[in-house]
Amino acid sequence: MHIALLSRNRNLYSTRRLIEAAEARGHTARVVDTLRCYMSIAAHHPSIHYKGAEIERFDAVIPRIGASITFYGCAVLRQFEMMGTYVVNDSVAITRSRDKLRSLQLLSRKGLGLPITGFAHSPDDIPDLITMVKGAPLVIKLLEGTQGIGVVLAETNQAAESVVQAFMGMKANIMVQEYIKEARGADIRCFVIGDKVVATMKRQAAEGEFRSNLHRGGTASVIRITPEERSTAIRAAKAMGLQVAGVDLLRANHGPVIMEVNSSPGLQGIETATGKDIAGMIIEHIEKNATATRKVPPKPKG
């Protein structure tokens, strides 16, 4: 198969590993810079051009779209979908997962465990918003934040009011969530491919830090998860419509709660922690699911 990786940086670990895994299984892989793609949107012959020429046909596309270019990246991905190309995660699923508030609402609709979350617009509603999530300590998150950026732990109600007021004053979209104390600064990353959790790791926050992101100094180790946690991760990925996802869970006293569903989960941390060939598993998933005959829209006559 001829596989495209929508990525802005071919030197990223995840991009390199996916290329290696594809080539190891006899496929060809090409890195395509998402922002260098431009589109011809036509009824009978939708096409994508890349660096001055119409792009070649691909059998499958692996989107590795950064959060900062979600809008344009999903537009490019939709164009591949219109051309009949198999995509690992489709544009609708990525858009759902990138909208933190919408994703939590979809997960709530499915009855999945979540931390109590509040969202408001008016500063007048801040005191009740804080009460809704059981008061301080609580977590305040920018809806557009990634990798732990724009996430604040407020230790007191007064501090929480000040931070929320500051964000609102900047016209930033934020949500507040209850702080799961019993998690003790640790979360579980479940890597889901298709309908299976293929790897799991525990991420522990650094000393004095509550965010467990590896980019913020957190450490990773292998962990065994419960059947309930496994089911929760799979159901969360399905709720988003994602075939490949990183589902982040916290162990609360009342069971697993979902923090986030990531549509472009990094491979370095989980492959290093578990020793598993996650990239190879993704390529194997494509082999099983990409249609042999691509549905190419007919060209106009004449």
TrEMBL record:
Entry-linked Gene3D superfamilies? 3.40.50.20, ATP-grasp fold, A domain (3.30.1490.20), ATP-grasp fold, B domain (3.30.470.20)
Q: Where does Mn(2+) 2 bind?
A: 260, 262
Cite the entry's keywords alphabetically.
Answer: ATP-binding, Ligase, Magnesium, Manganese, Metal-binding, Nucleotide-binding, Protein biosynthesis, Ribonucleoprotein, Ribosomal protein
- State its Enzyme Commission number(s): 6.3.2.-
Q: Which InterPro entries match?
A: ATP-grasp, ATP-grasp_RimK-type, ATP_grasp_subdomain_1, RimK, Rimk_N, Rp_bS6_RimK/Lys_biosynth_LsyX
**Cofactor: how bound:** Binds 2 magnesium or manganese ions per subunit.
Query: Which superkingdom, per the lineage?
Result: Bacteria
Which SUPFAM superfamilies does UniProt cross-reference here? Glutathione synthetase ATP-binding domain-like (SSF56059)
What top-level class of enzyme does the UniProt entry assign? ligase
Which residues does the annotation say bind Mg(2+) 1? 248, 260
Question: HAMAP family, per this entry?
Answer: RimK
Q: Which family does the entry's similarity section mention? A: Belongs to the RimK family.
Q: What is this protein called?
A: Probable alpha-L-glutamate ligase
Annotated source species: Vreelandella malpeensis
